[in-house]
Task: inverse folding
């Protein structure tokens, strides 16, 4: 393979983009190194002497902020280890000039400067920045100084309470305006329409609130009529008269219709004759039926025959003009009729949102959306805003914005306000202040969060004008070179988006895409599979027999993809562009939405023994592990619930099989639980299950929800049992479930019954971060894959409509002379021109974002892209498959598909490129240029899979992480030891003794006993005198022990955190622990760890978990201080009894763990 050189233009553009002397607006293609440029701009700012605290870097997600900060620290820490020649080379590449000795020293000190900055580098999301701003200026923002952020549970609870309070008040206050408003809305749209109204108001509360405040005042009717362009003369009566006059014809014309018209003409005349006899409301309906069909004007040929039009040549033009007038009049009439309904609806919405705000204010809480709104209002506020900006102006010199295309209009306003003093000429401080933004409009796919792609370019022009006005440097820079994808992938993208109808809306400039590959010589490919269409399946006559779901197109495609992936992994498919075999982690499957295809593919992959990550998002209550846990709760609350008990018995928690359940359930008398009791002597497993069930029933009566489930999952090994059956992916679900139980326990009603009702109604959704380093196939939406990459990408098209009328909003936005107003259109019969125009605009934007989603999906691929899909019976135009197929199939080679009935095409720029040989260190070399880290030019090799960080106190559990679920494992606290029967008292006693041993050595010896007694009386007032005296005695027995004196000197330390790596069973474990007491002497280190359980008689009886814990501590300390002797003391406070453990035995224990590795 030839070395991968970085083109001169790429180096030049990246250097210009990272120039700290100039403000810049950077448009960057996918894979062009946006994060790298941002990182090195920060480093160059620091290198120029900018204080770290004066740099504000705003990222889109917390994960992006963490990645960027890690890269900065890695680079700066790396500089501290470079010699002068290597560091000089790096700085020349970075700054374009040779540094002097002073510059080299400054570069090496940057890492320490960045670490020592109070609060660290300000690399954060804009929401985090706004939260900090509001905490800094709560008085000016008119919010509680101690405000806290609401979680989703609290928000949902408040919204539910606000809705309930509104409806109760509106219903009970008879003859009030609120009651009348409720009755009018209910009469017009019913309960479901009311629910839709309030739900949409909640979702759009940030945008609606200012308008609702205006329209809910005394001038509300006038404001709404002005917004809807209704004049005082536009009454319902006047408009109805005009409509009737326009619709009706003279008697002569009607006679002509009757004598010369066709059947449709006769129908037309009949409707007009009914108009004259009907009231106003009915007459309008007949006119609409006469002149329109499905809301659109009828064709003239459907109203009048050729013979009639020939006889009355003026009639065709006359009918067209009448239809045009009727369209305008009917539209205005609908707007007039909507005014009272809208005022009623807006009153309800205003009261709902006002109640929600009052609930938040009462508890000093803000929700996520409040942060931006309150921060923006603070910066714009007269008087206070200027003061805040003055204070901030003294602390921020450089603003950097990552993923700027996803920034919402309100967020842009905040950024502009923060930067407005940057470009005012000479100020109090002579500092060159800059604004930098990097983004890609083509990847703007978060419109549902308020992002407007055009705002990226618009705000760039605003900053540019400000900079030019004061003579400051500003640059528009394009990064077209991609370091991620092969030429085949990039050229396929350019081909798809070279048509004007395809690149429309891709960027503000509406130009075709241009990508330049750095990997121009690496082989890759783009493959297109024909979409799978539905096939007719003959359903069985017996309705009890299941219909074969394998014939569903989504399931068939899932099977084909799973078969393909399985073949690659099991037959050592080569990834030619990287010179190695394909791994599971190389494969990413992207979808537009999570439908039946996602679980079907996960299931198909598991059936073929292909490791697959779980869904990136899932509903907590629907996961099988959570369903088992909630079924157990239902049983303990109602033991006669046979269905819940049957579900639990077959779950991993108890593990009975079908035969066991059959034996218990068939021919039983009474409940399933009674039958289990009757059969408990038949089989030992039944007795064990019965004992556990009775234990859980008692436990549910005595313990809160969190402790109830914690006992089941931890002490009774429920977690291990579930993971053994469902796999490691269930671990995240169980963690989320326990977090949820804790949240409900803190904020909700107590008890299992209340918990079950809450989780059922709230149906919380959890988001799982999929680890790219795990050897698993990833399945996710394109939205979730933003910022990720993979060697092989399957882009799956569901063939669904881009726009679904069912999702059309009921609240229609109206521009009322620069003010945002709204119209509520609850149903088709209330359709207006305002609504039509707004919906059409939304449709166009949805189509543009749909194409941007396609761009994002295609550019995730590094080497190989497979575009495939499925569809329903009705073919939908403009889908991903169609756009890609039309662009690539004419220039592609037809190849064998995944199965005989699926055609396939292969697109490749140059088939003659040689495969990359197996890579060596020389192959991976990058031509030195702009100082890009090596991971930037190649796919990073995944780190060796490490188990979770190993805590020495639970070492025996964690090391044998593949042990069967039934193994009797006990996790023992490093302080508390084994739990006695009265575990809650033992825990409390052990904790207090531990604190005394931690803090007493820090006070004078003559004060220790007095302070110890005072502490025990205050911390444990409910204890008896005897219990406190016992704890006091135990404490001082330990401290007065001659062997332990080194641990309680002034030089000794308590709660010493220890971290490092230890090799066990051939694997490196990250070990993190806390030593109770440590004395680090000149030649000897003494460490002590306390246990309050029952002391064994001999060292040989000490549990293996304790011995391994101490062995890990000793090994880590010896690696840090190889020149010192390490004494290891295990202290049981019961006695006390001290064991000084033999160092050779501990070393043997670690070595034994190594040599017992199955690989050896």
Result:
């Amino acid at each position: 393979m030839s070395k991968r050189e970085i083109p001169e233009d790429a180096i030049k553009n990246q250097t210009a983009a990272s120039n700290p002397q100039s403000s810049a607006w950077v448009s960057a293609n996918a894979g062009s190194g946006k994060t790298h440029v941002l990182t090195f701009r920060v480093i160059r700012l620091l290198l120029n002497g900018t204080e770290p605290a004066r740099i504000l870097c705003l990222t889109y997600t917390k994960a992006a902020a963490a990645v960027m900060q890690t890269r900065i620290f890695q680079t700066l820490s790396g500089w501290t280890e470079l010699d002068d020649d290597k560091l000089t080379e790096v700085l020349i590449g970075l700054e374009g000039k040779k540094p002097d000795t002073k510059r080299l020293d400054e570069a090496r000190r940057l890492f320490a400067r960045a670490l020592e900055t109070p609060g660290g580098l300000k690399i954060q999301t804009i929401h985090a920045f706004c939260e900090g701003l509001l905490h800094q200026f709560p008085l000016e923002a008119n919010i509680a100084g101690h405000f806290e952020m609401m979680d989703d549970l609290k928000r949902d609870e408040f919204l539910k309470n606000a809705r309930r309070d509104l409806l109760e008040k509106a219903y009970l206050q008879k003859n009030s305006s609120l009651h009348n408003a409720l009755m009018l809305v209910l009469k017009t749209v019913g309960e479901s329409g009311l629910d839709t109204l309030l739900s949409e108001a909640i979702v759009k509360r940030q945008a609606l609130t200012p308008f609702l405040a205006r329209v809910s005042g005394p001038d509300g009717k006038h404001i709404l009529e002005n917004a809807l362009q209704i004049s005082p003369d536009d009454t319902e009566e006047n408009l109805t008269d005009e409509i009737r006059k326009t619709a009706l014809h003279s008697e002569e014309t009607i006679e002509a219709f009757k004598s010369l018209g066709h059947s449709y003409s006769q129908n037309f005349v009949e409707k007009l004759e009914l108009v004259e006899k009907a009231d106003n409301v009915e007459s309008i309906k007949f006119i609409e039926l006469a002149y329109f069909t499905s809301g659109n004007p009828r064709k003239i040929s459907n109203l009048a025959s050729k013979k009639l039009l020939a006889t009355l040549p003026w009639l065709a033009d006359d009918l067209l003009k009448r239809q045009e007038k009727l369209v305008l009049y009917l539209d205005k009439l609908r707007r007039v009729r909507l005014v009272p309904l809208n005022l009623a609806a807006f009153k309800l919405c205003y009261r709902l949102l006002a109640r929600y705000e009052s609930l938040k204010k009462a508890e000093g809480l803000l929700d996520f959306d409040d942060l931006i709104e309150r921060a923006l209002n603070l910066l714009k506020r007269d008087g206070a805003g200027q003061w805040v900006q003055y204070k901030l102006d003294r602390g921020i010199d450089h603003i950097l914005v990552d993923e700027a295309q996803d920034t919402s209009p309100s967020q842009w306003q905040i950024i502009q306000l923060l930067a407005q003093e940057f470009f005012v000429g000479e100020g109090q401080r002579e500092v060159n202040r800059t604004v930098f933004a990097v983004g890609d409009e083509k990847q703007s796919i978060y419109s549902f969060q308020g992002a407007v792609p055009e705002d990226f370019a618009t705000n760039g022009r605003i900053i540019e004008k400000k900079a030019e006005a004061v003579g400051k440097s500003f640059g528009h820079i394009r990064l077209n070179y991609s370091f991620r994808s092969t030429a085949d992938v990039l050229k396929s993208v350019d081909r798809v988006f070279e048509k004007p109808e395809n690149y429309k809306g891709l960027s503000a400039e509406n130009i075709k895409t241009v990508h330049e590959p750095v990997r121009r010589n690496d082989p890759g490919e783009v493959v297109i599979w024909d979409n799978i269409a539905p096939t007719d399946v003959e359903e069985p006559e017996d309705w009890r027999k299941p219909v074969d779901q394998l014939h569903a197109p989504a399931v068939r495609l899932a099977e084909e993809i799973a078969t393909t992936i399985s073949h690659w992994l099991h037959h050592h498919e080569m990834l030619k562009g990287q010179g190695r075999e394909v791994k599971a982690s190389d494969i990413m499957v992207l979808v537009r939405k999570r439908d039946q295809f996602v679980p079907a593919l996960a299931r198909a992959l598991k059936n073929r023994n292909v490791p697959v990550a779980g869904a990136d998002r899932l509903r907590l209550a629907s996961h099988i592990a959570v369903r088992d846990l909630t079924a157990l709760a239902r049983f303990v609350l109602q033991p006669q619930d046979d269905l819940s008990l049957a579900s639990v018995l077959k779950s991993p928690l108890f593990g009975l099989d079908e035969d066991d359940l059959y034996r218990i359930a068939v021919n039983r008398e009474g409940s399933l639980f009674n039958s289990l009791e009757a059969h408990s002597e038949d089989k030992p497993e039944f007795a064990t299950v019965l004992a556990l069930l009775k234990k859980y029933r008692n436990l549910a009566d005595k313990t809160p929800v969190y402790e109830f489930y914690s006992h089941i999952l931890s002490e009774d090994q429920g977690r291990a049992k579930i993971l053994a059956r469902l796999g490691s992916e269930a671990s995240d679900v169980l963690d989320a479930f326990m977090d949820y139980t804790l949240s409900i326990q803190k904020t909700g009603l107590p008890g299992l019954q209340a918990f079950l009702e809450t989780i059922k109604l709230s149906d919380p959704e959890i988001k799982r971060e999929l680890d790219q380093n795990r050897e698993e196939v990833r399945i996710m939406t394109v939205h979730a894959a933003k910022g990720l990459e993979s060697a092989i990408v399957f882009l799956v098209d569901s063939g669904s409509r881009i726009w679904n009328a069912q999702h059309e909003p009921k609240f229609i936005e109206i521009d009322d002379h620069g003010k945002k107003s709204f119209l509520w259109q609850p149903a088709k019969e209330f359709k207006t021109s305002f609504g039509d125009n707004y919906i059409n605009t939304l449709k166009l934007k949805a189509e543009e974002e749909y194409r941007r989603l396609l761009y994002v999906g295609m550019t995730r691929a590094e080497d190989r892209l497979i575009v495939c899909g499925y569809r329903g019976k009705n073919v939908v135009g403009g889908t991903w498959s169609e756009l890609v197929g039309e662009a690539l199939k004419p220039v592609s080679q037809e190849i064998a598909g995944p199965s005989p009935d699926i055609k396939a095409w292969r697109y490749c720029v140059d088939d003659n490129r040689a495969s990359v040989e197996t890579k060596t260190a020389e192959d991976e070399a990058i031509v030195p240029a702009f100082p890009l880290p090596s991971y930037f030019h190649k796919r990073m090799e995944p780190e060796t899979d490490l188990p979770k960080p190993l805590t020495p106190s639970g070492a025996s559990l964690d090391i044998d992480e593949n042990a069967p679920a039934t193994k009797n494992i006990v996790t023992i606290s490093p302080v508390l030891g084994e739990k006695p029967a009265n575990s809650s008292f033992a825990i409390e006693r052990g904790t207090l003794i531990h604190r005394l041993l931690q803090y007493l050595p820090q006070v004078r010896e003559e004060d220790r006993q007095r302070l110890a007694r005072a502490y025990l009386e205050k911390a444990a007032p409910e204890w008896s005198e005897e219990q406190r005296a016992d704890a006091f005695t135990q404490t001082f027995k330990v401290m007065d022990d001659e062997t332990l004196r080194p641990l309680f000197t002034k030089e000794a330390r308590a709660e010493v955190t220890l971290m490092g790596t230890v090799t066990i069973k051939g694997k490196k474990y990250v070990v993190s622990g806390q030593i109770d007491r440590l004395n680090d002497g000149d030649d000897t280190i003494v460490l002590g760890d306390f246990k309050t359980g029952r002391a064994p008689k001999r060292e040989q009886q000490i549990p293996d978990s304790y011995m391994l814990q101490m062995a890990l501590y000793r090994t880590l300390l010896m690696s840090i201080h190889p020149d010192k002797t390490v004494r290891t003391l295990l202290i049981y406070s019961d006695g006390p009894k001290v064991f000084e453990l033999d160092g050779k035995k501990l070393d043997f224990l670690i070595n034994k763990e190594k040599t017992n590795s199955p690989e050896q």
